[in-house]
Amino acid sequence: MKEVAVVLFGVGGVGSALLRQIVNGRSAIATRNQIQFNIVAVTDRQTMLWEPTGLSDAQLLDAVAAKTQGLPVDPDYRGERPSTRVRPSEIELVQQVTDAGLGPAIFVDVTAAEGMEPALLLALNLGHSVVLANKKPLAGPWETAVPFYNHPRLRHESTVGGGQPVIATLRYLLDVNDPIYQIEGQLSGTLGFICTQLDAGVPLSQAIAEAKAKGYTEPDPREDLGGQDVMRKVMILGRMAGWPLEASDIEVESLYTPDLANLTVPQFLQAASQLDEAMAERVAEAHANGQVLRYVAELSEGSGTVGLKPIPANSPLANMKYISFRTGHYSDEPLLIGGKGAGVEMTAAGVLGDMIGLVRES
Ligand SMILES: NC(=O)c1ccc[n+]([C@@H]2O[C@H](COP(=O)([O-])OP(=O)(O)OC[C@H]3O[C@@H](n4cnc5c(N)ncnc54)[C@H](OP(=O)(O)O)[C@@H]3O)[C@@H](O)[C@H]2O)c1
Fold first, then answer.
1. pLDDT tens digits for 60-101?
2. Is the terminal CB of the chain with fewer CB neighbours within 10 Å at N or C?
3. Residue ID of nearest Cα to ligand 1 atom 8
4. What global pTM score does this model have?
C-alpha cells in the first residue's frame, strides 16, 4: 500500500465533494489502487487543519459540514471566542510539509484564488505533485503559466469539461503527434442553461435570475456572463496544443454592457432588464433562420473567439456541452467529447482521478 500525503487548498463545492469521495471511497481506492491518501492539511481562505499523520475521517467530514454552514474548517475559529492565530501562507505550508518529511505529497488547488502560482511552483520544485481544478494558474500571463504546462507531476483534468476526459484526450492526441488545427466547444453549463431559457422566450434578465436562484452561477453572475471563465478554459486547451496564447489573443463577447460592470449584485440583477430587448431581437433573428444562439468558444493557432453564435436548431450540438478537436487525423469530422453539464461531483471525481494517476505513475 502506498501512503501519500495530500494538502487540500479550498473546501468549497468541489473540495467538499472531493473529501466525501475520498472518505467514502477509502477501501475501494485501497483495494483497486493500493493507495491510502493521508490528508495532512485542509485550508480555507483564513484557517487550516493540520495533522502530519493524516486528519481523521471525522475531522474531514466535520470540516465539510462546517463549510456547508459557512464556518471555518478549523473548529478553534468557531464559537464565541474564535482564535486569532494566523494560518501559514500557502508557501509556508509547502515548506512545512517538506520539513515534516512526509515524502512527495500532492497539493490540490480547488480554490478559485489568484496568486497561487508561487506556492504551486515551489511544491513542484521540491519534488511534490500538483492537481488543479483552479484554472487561474494555467490562464495567467504565459510567462507565469508556462512552468505548469507539460510538467510530469501536474494534472488538471477538471479545469476544462468538469471531469469529462477532455484534457486526457488532448494529451493523447499530442502524444501521438496528431497536430491540432482547431478547438471548439460550449464550455459553460451556466451559459448553456441561459441560452436554452432564451430559446423558450424567457427574457435574458429573468434567465440570469433563474440561473442564480438555482445556484448555477457564481455569486456574482457577471463572472459567468462576462465570458472570462470560458476564455480561461479555451486558453488552457490552446496552450496545451502548443500555442502560447495571451488573453489579448482571444476576443471575448460579454453578455452584459460595460455600464453594468460597477453595480452591486442586487443592482445588476435589477438593471439587467435593459439587456432584454436587444437579446430578444438576436434570438428572434436566429429562430427565423432555423437557428439557436449558443455561447461557443472557437480557437485555432494564435487566436480565437468566445461569444454567442447562431447554430442550427436541429444540430445535436445545440443541446449538449461539448468540445471538439479538429486535427490531422480528425480533419473531415472533428473528434467530439460531449455530455451533460458537469457538477461538483464530476469535477471532484476528475481531481481524484488525477491524484490516483499521479501516484500510479510515480
Ligand atoms: N463548481 C464546479 O462545478 C466546477 C467545475 C470545474 C472547475 N471548477 C473550479 O474549481 C474551483 C473550486 O470551485 P468551487 O465551486 O468549489 O468554488 P467555491 O465553492 O467558491 O470554493 C472555493 C473554496 O476555496 C477557498 N479559498 C479561496 N481562496 C483560498 C486560498 N487562498 N487558500 C485556501 N482556500 C481558499 C474558499 O474558502 P472560503 O470558504 O474561506 O471562502 C472556498 O472554500 C474553482 O477554481 C472553479 O473554477 C468548479
1. 999 999 999 999 999 988 888 888 888 999 999 999 999 999
2. N
3. 133
4. 0.94
The mean of the pLDDT values for the chain is 95
Alpha-carbon span 6 to 19, nearest angstrom: 11
Do the bridges between strand 129-132 and strand 106-109 make them parallel or antiparallel, or are there none, so unpaired? parallel
* Burial tier of 247 (Cβ tally within 10 Å: 0-12, 13-18, 19+): middle
Please work out whether the CB of residue 263 comes within 6 Å of at least one atom of ligand 1.
Answer: no
Please list the residue range(s) of the chain that carry CATH number 3.40.50.720: 2-163+345-361
What phi-psi label fits residue 129: left (phi over 0), alpha (psi between -120 and 50 degrees) or beta?
beta
CATH of domain 2-163+345-361: 3.40.50.720
Where in the chain do CATH 3.30.360.10 domains reside?
180-340
The residue from 233, 309, 321, 340 that is catalytic is 233
- The CATH code that applies to domain 180-340 is 3.30.360.10
Q: Ligand 1, residue 43: give the atom nearest the CA.
A: 33
Q: How far apart are the CA of 310 and the centre of ligand 1, in A?
A: 32
The atom of ligand 1 lying closest to the CA of 135 is: 45
Q: Is 233 a catalytic residue?
A: yes
Contact 162 CB / ligand 1 (< 6 Å): yes
The per-residue pLDDT for range 318-359, each reduced to its tens digit, is 888 899 999 999 999 999 998 876 689 999 999 999 999 999
